[in-house]
Structure formats: C-alpha cells, structure tokens
Design brief:
By secondary structure, the protein is an alpha/beta fold. It has helices spanning 13-22, 50-59, 63-71, 81-84, 190-203, and strands at residues 3-6, 27-30, 41-44, 76-79, 87-90, 102-108, 119-124, 126-127, 143-148, 150-154, 160-165, 169-176, 179-182. It has one domain (3-203): Class I glutamine amidotransferase (GATase) domain (Rossmann fold, 3-Layer(aba) Sandwich), CATH 3.40.50.880. The strands form 3 sheets. It has an 8-stranded mixed sheet. A 3-stranded mixed sheet has the order 5-6-10, with no helix packed on it. The radius of gyration is 16 Å and the shape is globular.
Length: 209
C-alpha cells in the first residue's frame, strides 16, 4: 500500500509519520493534486486554526482532489483539523467554508465551571460500534489524547463512531464506509492510538498482519 499524508503547510505531520512507522507503514507527503494518483490511502492530520488549514488546502490545490477522494469512498483517516475540515463551517472562523463533505458545524466548547478550554489530556471514548473492525483490539472503554477547543456537531447521527464527555457529550469520532475521522490524536495516544492506526493500515492493505 502507498500511504499518503496530506501536507497543507501546517499540522504535526512528522509525529503522525513516526506513529505510522511504528505500525509498519511508510508514508509520503501529498502536497499537490498530482500526488493523489500516487497513493492508495490518505491520512489528513492537523492542528491549529480552521481558516489557516482551509487556506493551505486552497493554496495548494488540494480541496477538490480531497472531495473527489472521499466521494469515491477511498481510504481516509482525518485527525483533529483533518476531522473538523470535513464539515461545512466552524464557529472559530465564521464565513470560512470547510470541505462540506458532511452537514454540520464545528462548535466551541461553552464555558462551564470546572472545565477548562482547551480540552487537553486523556479522556474516555464511548464507542458506538466497538465490534467494527476499525476498533478491533481496543479496550472496552479506550482512552485517547485530546487537545482542542472546538469539535464537530454532525447533522447526521449515523456518522457517530465515538463520543466523549467533557461537560457534556460531543462526537469525537465518525465513520462512513472507508472514512474514519477523530477529534483526538491517535499519534499522541500511545498503545490505543497505535492500535487504531494499525487497524487502518491493515484494513487497507498495508503493514504487518
């Protein structure tokens, strides 16, 4: 399998690449439209602002190839901004359009007593479909590492793959076909995160069995 990491000029690309190496997969950076033809599966990692990320995708001509890739149900893993960008808009930057793959808005955590924003650290994920092959090998109540102030609120509840409680439940993971996307960072989540990335790689034809 030829694995690609979306390089839009931001994000923690090297840490994701290193995590993929830990599960036996080498990945190349995809920073131009022509690069999509050279890979079989894509990882879209990220950190930072919604508007900067969308501007980077636009500047490098990656928006339409990404939309076409996902529309064709080709293997895709979105992380943090790579999850948020799948939706129509974000409260972080009103007026800036996301990829619009799914209906819904990226919302900011409200101020609640006892809950700091950003949400930072380990938290439990309640899996909607723990029997799904994507989550094989996880503990019944896995913990993953989060760093974010915003989270998507999908309009379609059937997308939900996992939820987390931080002063109220929010959707921290979605799945549809060969797409999976998470608000938490699997590359920072030690064994649970490596297990999740390893399953993605193996399900799509790469890495050790």
């Amino acid at each position: 399998m030829n694995l690609g990491i979306i390089d839009y000029g931001g994000g923690n690309l090297q840490s994701v690449r290193n995590a993929l190496r830990c599960v036996g997969a080498e990945a190349r950076y995809v920073d131009r439209a022509a690069g999509f033809a050279e890979v079989d599966a894509l990882v879209f990692p990220g950190q930072g602002r919604f508007d900067d990320s969308m501007a980077g995708l636009q500047r490098q001509g990656l928006v339409e190839p990404l939309r076409e890739w996902i529309a064709a149900d080709r293997p895709f893993f979105g992380i943090c901004i790579g999850y948020q960008a799948l939706f129509e808009r974000s409260q972080e930057n009103p007026g800036v359009a996301g990829l619009g793959i799914f209906e819904g808005e990226v919302r900011r955590f409200p101020h609640r007593a006892g809950f700091k924003v950003p949400h930072m650290g380990w938290n439990q994920v309640r899996l909607s479909h723990p029997e799904d092959p994507a989550w094989q090998g996880q503990d019944p109540h896995p913990h993953f590492y989060f760093v974010h102030s915003y989270y998507p609120a999908p309009a379609d509840p059937t997308l939900t793959a996992g939820t987390t409680d931080y002063g109220g439940d929010f959707v921290c993971a979605i799945q549809r076909g060969n797409l999976i996307a998470t608000q938490f960072h699997p590359e920072k989540s030690q064994s649970a995160g490596l297990t999740l990335l390893g399953q993605f790689v193996r399900r799509h034809g790469g890495g050790p069995t």
